[in-house]
Amino acid sequence: MKRVFLNSGGMDSLAVAVKLKDDELHSLYVHTGVPAADAQAEAARKIADKYCASHKMIVLHDILVPPTETGRIRPMYYNTPILAILGAAHAASLDIVSVVSGNKIEVFDSNFEKYMAKLLSTTKLRGERMYSRPLGKASFDDIYQIVKDDELLDQTVSCLSVPPCGICAKCKNRQKYNIGVTAQ
Ligand SMILES: [Zn+2]
Fold first, then answer.
1. Separation of 176 CA from ligand 1 center, angstroms?
2. Coil, helix or strand for 56?
3. Considering the domain boundaries, does residue 22 fall inside one?
């Protein structure tokens, strides 16, 4: 099946690519301007070179900036829906009706998948669930088991800081499993 794959260049993205390697994946990396974005973009390209039929990067950091006022919408919360909608737009342009991401946690409101389905249903094709997260609620260890033998694992980018901060949960997990955190 053809799918648009929201590829952030992280371990979860690599796991999605490995898991769906029999599908025709069209990778989309959205450069949001986080400090590690260039490193993420490079990692995403490597994942796409190995597993995907096509790869596209959209640079958004001059257009979408985090809200300056405190409120319900915060940078890490607005990312997922925005990225998914961009993925849906990319999918629509390719007549693809499936968008997948490595996101493991439901961080958007309950109507979100309905919006996604509606957006994608304007394409000529009909398919299975339009927006899906193949990793479900996988734990870090589950993800690790999927990607541990992939030579790109050490080149994935998990931390948003440059160089990797070494103290966030993602860096800690990588250290625990002896996955490179400074080789970026
Ligand atoms: Zn970190």
1. 13
2. strand
3. yes
Helix (H, G, I), strand (E, B) or coil at 6: strand
The pTM of the full predicted model, rounded to 2 decimals, is: 0.83
| 107 C-alpha to ligand 1 centroid (Å) | 21
The Cβ-side half-sphere exposure at 112, using a 13 Å CA radius, reads 16
Residue 134 CA to ligand 1 center (angstroms) comes to 24
38: CATH: 3.40.50.620
Residue 72 makes CB contacts below 8 A (sequence gap 6+) with none
User: In terms of pLDDT, which residue wins out, 80 or 145?
Assistant: 145
- State the pLDDT at residue 112: 66
Q: Phi/psi at 166 (nearest 5 deg)?
A: 80, -5
More confident residue, 111 or 184: 111
- Provide the domain limits for residue 97: 2-151
Cis amide linkage into residue 35, ω under 30° from 0: no
Q: How many structural domains does the chain have?
A: 1
Q: What is the pLDDT of residue 82?
A: 73
Decide if 17 contacts 34 (C-beta within 8 A). Answer: no
Distance 169 CA to ligand 1 centre (A): 7
Out of 51-65, 75-89, 169-183, the most confident range is 169-183
- Ligand 1 centroid – CA 71 distance (Å): 25
Residue at token pair 């849906």? 88
**Nearest-angstrom CA–CA distance, 46 and 14:** 10
